[in-house]
Design a protein that fits this description.
Chain lengths: ~300, ~70
């Protein structure tokens, strides 16, 4: 198999693009996809500092690597979920990455903010662990960005993540979730920062290949709580469809973004308030994060 | 050849010189879900892996509440 650009031996075949690339040309292809995402959705400018949410996994560290190399001003944010050895190892990967590149890394622990780590939250709420974890992550990303005066948070969500989320929303016809699915969510309140996903044009396999070729030391092991997660099941289904019909995931997501998403946007804007407890944005009186923290405190104290 | 699999980490032996796509088919692994690594290199589905080689099939799928 030969590289589409230079004719040298290829290291990666991208069936959905009907192409294969050598290592240098694949790295450039990857960076160009990120640049196109940033440009098309006006995600951020070079005058801004971007808070990059990093987990120690391939996607977020690959994203941070591209942004640093392209000259963006960045700060990493690692959220310590307190998930046993997995969190210890993933935090170490982020610290090593930041130290090697001389970029700042902020660490925020869920235990300090909620009152307990994710494994305890899971037991207290009796909901899937990814539920309390995702809620805590979204809340803390916004909180840390506001505290540090940053207007934008970038996450490592890739094409597979986005396609799987869309698949889940469509399977349950969560029409309220569909307009929120976007590579770039604008700030709609002074206390809500912009959220962007510069890797949404790249598949999970492409981000893994980029991380490998860039010799990024990322955590390969899965989160112990991800086993059996619905999002994994949806990804497996979509990967089988992709195998049978290359480009299926891309067409599903991009078709939605280009043609279907506008149909689900609401005419009237959602009213946002400030949480009576913490001051962060909520649609109610007390935000979901404060309710979660209350629930944890009650159970942990009793 | 020795084939290293992850999550959980384990090893399987596959006999003879084989193309990568044949190995994946035999192990019932969807090519889209793994990187195929031989030493410090990525290898494509049409490449032949020799009897004495070791390859790693590294999963690329992550999931849960938020991205990795």
């Amino acid at each position: 198999m030969k590289c589409r650009k230079c004719g040298e031996p290829a290291v990666l075949e991208l069936r959905r693009h009907n192409a294969a690339f050598c290592a240098p040309d694949f790295l450039e292809f990857f960076r160009n996809q990120v640049r196109e995402a940033i440009r098309k959705h006006r995600m951020f400018t070079r005058d801004e500092t971007v808070l990059v949410a990093v987990s120690g996994g391939k996607d977020s560290l690959a994203l941070w690597d591209v942004l640093i190399d392209d000259g963006y001003r960045t700060t990493g944010l690692y959220l310590d979920l307190g998930i046993f050895e997995y969190s210890v190892e993933s935090k170490a990967k982020c610290e090593k990455f930041a130290a090697a590149r001389g970029v700042p890394l902020t660490v925020s622990a869920v235990r300090d903010e909620v009152g307990a780590p994710v494994p305890v939250i899971k037991d207290v709420t009796r909901r899937p662990p990814c539920s309390g974890c995702g809620l805590s992550k979204r809340y803390l990303m916004n909180k840390v960005a506001l505290e540090q005066g940053m207007l934008v948070v970038a996450t490592g969500h890739n094409l597979d993540d986005e396609a799987a989320t869309l698949f889940g929303s469509v399977m349950h016809w969560r029409t309220d979730a569909l307009p929120r699915q976007s590579p770039a969510l604008a700030s709609t309140h002074p206390k809500l920062v912009r959220r962007v996903k510069p890797l949404y044009r790249l598949s999970e396999r492409e981000t893994a290949a980029f991380a490998f070729l860039r010799k990024i030391d990322y955590i390969v092991e899965e989160c112990p709580f991800a086993k059996g997660a619905t999002s994994i099941t949806h990804k497996e289904i979509l990967s089988r469809m992709e195998d049978a019909s290359p480009g299926a995931k891309h067409n599903f997501l991009f078709g939605f973004l280009d043609r279907a998403r506008p149909a689900f946007e609401r005419a009237e804007a959602v009213v946002l308030n400030e949480c009576a407890r913490c001051g962060q944005v909520t649609t109610g009186t007390i935000c979901a994060f404060c309710k979660l923290a209350d629930q944890v405190k009650r159970r942990v104290v009793s | 050849m020795k084939v290293i699999l992850r999550n959980p980490r384990r090893e399987v032996d596959v006999a003879g010189n084989r193309r990568v796509k044949e190995i994946l088919r035999e192990l019932d692994i969807i090519p889209e879900t793994v990187l195929v690594i031989c030493g410090d290199d990525l290898v494509t589905a049409d490449q032949v892996v020799r009897e004495g080689d070791t390859i790693e099939l590294r999963p690329v799928m992550s999931g849960g509440g938020a991205s990795s």
